[in-house]
Write a structure and sequence with these properties.
two-stranded antiparallel sheet; alpha+beta; 3 helices; Double Stranded RNA Binding Domain; three-stranded antiparallel β-sheet
């Protein structure tokens, strides 16, 4: 059984994919609309055994706009005339998209403003204050 390798040691068995050929749309020649060269890949994130719970939650959150209501990722490819090349392109795009979604978020490191930054901020406040003070009419 073939597996698709993803970052962080995740490998998704191709048995979890539903890959099917569908009819391509759009303008073309005599046989373009009768050949099934477009490839559609469906992967159910919610039932996948390749992901642990943290990874599944991360993928569901990051790919929420691409998933159906049931948690299925659907990718299509019709860049090439050949069904085989479209299948390879869709699997490569799957690796890219899901691989990016698996990247854990960077932990935020707390920082403090430098002394120079504090001094520049206070100097800017003094300048602004002086500008506003000079706008006032003189008191007699």
């Amino acid at each position: 059984m073939a597996k698709v390798q993803l970052p962080y040691g995740v490998s998704v068995p191709e048995a979890e994919f539903e890959v099917r050929a569908v009819r391509s749309g759009g303008p073309g020649g005599q046989s373009v609309n009768t050949t099934d060269s477009k490839v559609e890949l469906r992967w159910d994130v919610t039932t996948s055994r390749a992901l642990d719970e943290r990874q599944r939650a991360r993928v569901l959150e990051r790919l929420a706009s691409r998933l159906t209501d049931d948690g299925v990722l659907i990718l299509t490819g019709q860049e090439h005339k050949s069904q085989h090349r479209n299948r390879e392109a869709v699997i490569a795009r799957f690796q890219s998209i899901v691989g990016e979604a698996l990247v854990p978020p960077k932990t935020r490191r707390r920082t403090r403003p430098t002394r120079g930054a504090k001094e520049r901020r206070l100097e800017a406040k003094r300048q602004r204050s002086q500008t506003k003070r000079l706008r006032k009419p003189p008191t007699t």
